[in-house]
Amino acid sequence: MTARIQKSVSRFFRDTKGDASLEAIIILPAMLVIFAISWLYFDVMRQQAINQKANYTIGDIISRETEILDDDYIDNARNLLFHLAQAQGDDVDLRVSVVQYNKIGEGVSSGNETYDLVWSTARGDWPALTDGDMTTYRPVLPILAVGDQTIIVETRDWYQPLVQLANDGFDITTYSFTRPRFASQVIFEGANDGSGKTWQNNGWGNGDQDAPGGSLCNNNAENATDCASTTTKPTNGKGKKKKNT
């Protein structure tokens, strides 16, 4: 009896029928999970690359502007983001800001260096940046020359994966820094367009007070009057030489 049982058990272990099916049952679910994770990772990287390229495009367009930007321009920039990022709806946010680097006094200590917000505007759920946000942004801002400005373009797009594994979606956020190309600054209507500037006298006829020596006329100041007696016609190097007597 014992020998018969041992023989049956031995025959069972030597039997290879159904091995392929059993291995498939074990391995196939693991392979499907690995494939889903790999596809999800690839799709996230693909969408991240698309959004970053869209960000660079908007930053490059704004950096080439020499005219005054307004709200309609930013609205159309967001519409362009919709098209380039292949997204739509309120899940897509855009924020454009201009920051200027300034240094007070001499030295290189951080206390003498400031990043000042020139203007900022946003579309979507994001608020525009404020001066208080510069403390948070300072570690990631690029090194600039004194007086230089940089354009910060930020985008945020809600990504909803087709295969839900660990969560129900997440934000894809991108940012870029671009220096103005054809002008020293990018002007936004009502912010740095000069409409709120208070002019002060600097002694060279550029203010609201008289300056000596006819400098108001020589510098084409806005309050220069009766300049006929204080200006001379240019000779372009062809004036007559004074004869020696």
What would you note in describing this structure?
This protein has 245 residues and is an alpha+beta fold. The chain has a domain at 28-178. 33% of the residues lie in helices and 18% in strands. The protein has five helices and four strands. Strands 2-1-3-4 form a four-stranded antiparallel sheet, with helices on one face. Helix 2 (19-63) runs antiparallel to helix 3 (71-84). The protein starts with a helix and ends in a 27-residue tail after the last helix.
Q: Kindly state the mean pLDDT as a whole number?
A: 78
Overall shape: it is elongated
Structural class of the helices, strands and pairings? alpha+beta
Helix content: 25-40%
Strand elements, count: 4
Strand order of the largest sheet: 2-1-3-4
Features:
four-stranded antiparallel beta sheet
Short summary:
With 245 residues, this protein is α+β, with helices and mostly antiparallel strands.
Fold blueprint:
Blueprint: H1 2-14, H2 19-63, H3 71-84, E1 92-103, E2 113-123, H4 134-137, E3 149-159, E4 170-178, H5 215-218
Antiparallel strand pairs: 1-2, 1-3, 3-4
Helix pairs in contact: 2-3
